[in-house]
Amino acid sequence: MTDQSTVTDQSTVTDQEGAVKNIRSAATHSVSAPAGVVPVVRQEGVLGFVERAGKVFVALAGSRYDRAVEVGQRLSFTEAQAVVAG
Fold first, then answer.
1. Rounded to whole angstroms, how far apart are CA atoms 22 and 9?
2. Where are the domains of the chain?
């Protein structure tokens, strides 16, 4: 007998007996960006990028680097990443 499951949303699965199980999304995202540019990714996709420019880190919002818009500059990578993540 095979275990048949129905996906009800991205975080739970219901098996044939009706038991609900938690699952993790294994989504991968293809990102094209120049070397030195770090994508900011969440489960739903690419939120933006962080790029170093001299002494500052530039926060860029958008799923494509070539169309991303600057939304801030910070002195630390973590703070720039937080700006992109919102």
1. 10
2. 5-85
pLDDT for residue 24 is more than 60? no
The edge-to-edge listing of strands for the beta sheet with 45-53 is: 37-42, 45-53, 56-61, 69-74
- Residue 58 to residue 76: CA distance in whole angstroms: 10
Buried-state track 11-31, b at ≥16 Cβ within 10 A, e below 16:
eeeeeeeeeeeeeeeeeeeeb
Task: Look up residue 3 and give its two tokens.
Answer: 């275990």
Longest dimension (CA), the chain: 61
> Full-prediction pTM beyond 0.85?
no
